[in-house]
Amino acid sequence: MPIHDFSYRHWRGQPSDRPPSLVLGLSQLRVVMRRRAVRLLLTASAFVVVGYLALLYVETMPRENLLGFLRGVPLLELNGRTLRAFLLYQRMLHYLLCLAAGADLVALDRRHKALQIYLARPLGVPDYLIGKALPLALLLSLTTWMPALALLGLKTIATVSLRWLREEPWLHFSILGSSGLLIASLVLLTLAVSSLSTSPRLASGQVVAVLVLATALGEILSGLTHSESWRLLSLDSDLDQIGHWLFAAPSPHDVSPWGVLVALAVLCSGCIWILLRRVRAVDVVGGT
Question: How far apart are CA 143 and CA 127, in angstroms?
Fold first, then answer.
C-alpha cells in the first residue's frame, strides 16, 4: 500500500508576465459575467444601440430605398444632441450595473477575510483596487463611449465623408470626456461604498442610498434656498451638467461647469481616501 506524503510541496511553475492587477481583473470579470442580472442589463443596453442603428439607417439611406413602413418615420440626425441623449437614456442602466456587478466586489473579500490573501506579495493595494475596478469600468465602457464611437464610425462609413463632423469636430472628445467622468466617479463611488461593509446586500443598499439621497437632498435644498449650487451634491445632476457643457448644449441648471468639476474631483478624492483606509491586510478592531 503506497504511503502518501502530505507535507508542503513547493510551487514549481513559472510566474505570469501579466500585471497582477490584470490577472485579478480578468478573474473578477469572469465571475461578474456569470450573473444573470449583468447579462440582462447588457442585453437591454444592446437594444438601445440597435435602436440608434435603425436611426442611422433611416438617416443615411435615400427615402425611396427604405422599406415602406420606414418611409414615414421622421428623419432624425445622428449628431451631438442625439448622442448626448444616447448616454443620458442609459444612466439608469449604469446605476444598475454598479449594483449588480460592483456593490459586492470589496464587501465579499472583507466578509471572508480574503484581503490578507490578496494583499500578499506581489499584489499590493493599488494592484488590488485596479483589478477590482477593471471589470466594472469595462462594463460601463460597453454602454457608454464604445458604442457611441462605433456609431460615429458607422455613420462616417455610411456617408463616405467626414463633412458631417465639420459642425461638431469636438464630438469624439465630448463622448470620451463625459463617459470618462461618469465611469471614474461611479467606479470609485461603488468600490468605496463596498469597502465600508461586509455584507453585499447592505453595500447595495448603501450605493442606492448615496445616489438617491444625495439627489433628493440637492433638489430639496435647491428648492428651499432658491440656489442652484446645492445641486452639486447630486452626482446625477453633476453628470448631466458636465454632459451638457461638453456637448455644447444649453445648461439645465445655473451652475458653473468648473464647480461641477471641482465637486466630481472632491467626490473621487474622498472615495480614494476611503479605499486606502479600508483596504488593508489587517483589520484593526478595538479591544475591551
Answer: 25
Query: Mean pLDDT across the stretch 117-143?
Result: 89
CA distances from 184 to 12, 55, 155, 287 (A): 39, 30, 28, 37
SS3 (DSSP) at 9? coil
Q: Higher model confidence: residue 16 or residue 215?
A: 215
Task: Report which of 61, 137, 52 is spatially closest to residue 94, judged by C-alpha positions.
Answer: 137
Asked if 222 and 231 count as a contact pair (C-beta separation under 8 A), the reply is yes
The three cell numbers of residue 157 are: 462609413
Residue found by looking up cell 450573473 in the block: 35
Q: How far apart are CA 263 and CA 255, in angstroms?
A: 11
Burial 174-196 (b: 16+ CB within 10 A, else e): bbebbbebbbbbbbbbbbbbbbe
Angle value at C-alpha 75, between 70 and 80, nearest 5 degrees: 130
- Tens of pLDDT along 165-210? 788 888 899 999 999 999 999 999 999 999 998 888 888 888 888 8
Q: Are 172 and 237 in contact (CB under 8 A)?
A: no
Judged by phi (left if over 0) then psi (alpha if -120 to 50, else beta), residue 128 lies in alpha
